[in-house]
Structure formats: C-alpha cells, structure tokens
Amino acid sequence: xxxxxxxxxxxxxxxxxxxxxxxxxxxxxxxxxxxxxxxxxxxxxxxxxxxxxxxxxxxxxxxxxxxxxxxxxxxxxxxxxxxxxxxxxxxxxxxxxx
Length: 98
Known about the structure:
The chain is α+β, with helices and mostly antiparallel strands.
C-alpha cells in the first residue's frame, strides 16, 4: 500500500482528509502512483501533471525519505520505504515569489 500526502487544496478537491492509500500494480514509480491516484480520484487529472504531456506541472514537487524526487524520471523506482508504506510520497505545492 502506497501512502500519498496531498496539499490541502488537492485533498479538498478530491474530497479526502489525511493521506491517500493506493494499491499500485507493478513497480512503484512516480508514473504508476500518479496513474493510480488519477484512476481513483479522476477529479485530480490534470492538477499534478499535464493531461497531454504527462509532465509534472510547474510548482508541484515530489518528496520522499527527505529527498526531492521531482526531477527523477517518471519511471524511476520509488524508495523501498515508500513501496512498503513506511514513508509517504508527498506531493507539495512549491511557493514562488519575492
């Protein structure tokens, strides 16, 4: 079971509170987790990654095990701690401005 922590505005949009727990078939990668998330919560399609290109949206970051995974390839395996459910994959809205 993969645990995903969403920012407050996406939790509100999806109608969930707290973490989302997902069954991810096959290898756990950013792509497979986002596919499972969007399958279970269709309202989130296009909010984390672009509909057409499937690229991460600007100002969205992915963190797990105190590491920024945002620039990893979408098919790179997630850390084992995430795969076994000890650590969550965190989807974070980056803050910009001055």
